[in-house]
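Appendix B, record 7
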Amino acid sequence: MERVDKLHPARWWHTLDDGRIQCDLCPRECKLHEGQRAACFVRAMQGGELVLTTYGRSSGFCIDPIEKKPLNQFYPGSSILSFGTAGCNLACKFCQNWDISKSRDMDRLMDQASPEAIAQAAKRHGAQSVAFTYNDPVIFAEYAMDTADACHGLGIQTVAVTAGYMHLAPAREFYAKMDAANIDLKGFSDDFYLKLCGGHLHNVLDLIAMVHHETDCWVELTTLLIPGKNDSDAELKQLSAWMASELGPDVPIHFTAFHPDWKMDDIPATPPETLRRARRIAMDAGLRYVYTGNVHDKDGDTTYCPGCQAPLIVRDWYDILDYRLDDTGRCRQCGTALPGRYGKFTRPFGPRRIPVSMQRISSPS
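Structure tokens (predicted):
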């Protein structure tokens, strides 16, 4: 197994007049004394500089279907090598991966791998893409960007699954190296972001707009609907109207079901009807690709042609039951191009989940 140093020089910071340093990666702008860690817990001041303490260390690797990210219009049916590290720069009380994102135990990061080893592993397992996920890749951006470079060298695509809480200057560098992203739009009120996430809505909206308009990265959004918190008709109409006016009708959004977790285990799971209601509201606002997730909803899983309305990609959870696009992503019935990224469709990967041990991956020569 290839050893990777635990500490790695971080980017996007500057020294303050009082001797502290300020991290310029995200809107938290943590100001640190020597030996102090940022709110994300993985960026720290050591030796007068900012370091990333989780570079080359992961909480695990797994081969997933691309639809699990979720990405429905980015090489449908393909497989993706997923991994994350630890920590997060938001403080969502409803976190669904809290055991990883809220971890303060760096010893749980047992798998070590260089960017080159990750790219080689993806190639070896036939994965078309590598996903930076489980916790937020914003906080391990240097590691993710180096891995993206290694992946692109082998023809492997890269995907960021993120809450999008990042300053625009580093984000422009980060997303220039991403082929696709699923960005959480956690709600559509600053009150929700402030009280339940420890952040601000406008930072996320600015980032989503920048990625969509200024980069070649394919974007899909996800909103986890929490009963009584962000699922009102009024808020869903505002969210949908913003997407339609700022992003246009072709950016997909996934409305997914909350289940009680972390610090919000007293709130019931989201009823399926809430997701269907959200989907109707978004489609009435002019959005063409609105999906439901974490519930069984074949109609909400299916991608329809914007031209003739024929079902083009029929899904049942992560299974693709029917696929009616040519290799360029055009409807076989009317020839209308479907927004997204497509290629030759063969046998879909399906709902499998295959753990990958990097302990068995030797370092590249």
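Remarks on this record: The chain has two domains: 8-52, 57-358. The first helix runs from residue 98 to 101.
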